[in-house]
Amino acid sequence: xxxxxxxxxxxxxxxxxxxxxxxxxxxxxxxxxxxxxxxxxxxxxxxxxxxxxxxxxxxxxxxxxxxxxxxxxxxxxxxxxxxxxxxxxxxxxxxxxxxxxxxxxxxxxx
Length: 110
Known about the structure:
With about 110 residues, the protein is α+β, with helices and mostly antiparallel strands. The protein is built from 4 helices and 2 strands, in the order H-E-E-H-H-H. It has helices at about 30-35, 55-70, 70-85, 105-110; strands spanning about 40-45, 50-55. Helix 2 (about 55-70) packs across helix 3 (about 70-85). The protein starts with about 25 loop residues before the first helix and ends with a helix.
């Protein structure tokens, strides 16, 4: 247990070190979205035409290519992205059984 003489209140003289994220710094998702939206003029592997495509488009096309080559994980990721991941369903059956199988109705009257 802490000794009370070791405890210090936060005053203007005693302030903890400011070790948080600096103000104005961007979080990881903001940076990732910025770079995923960068566009390039490249040949579309499906249509063979030059198109302006974002990095996100290029990665999706690469995933489609892998799925077409037989990669089942790539196929599953595409299906989950397009249609949503399936919910896990639990089958529950309710069979009424007596709590005390050894006790009959005649025994409860005694």
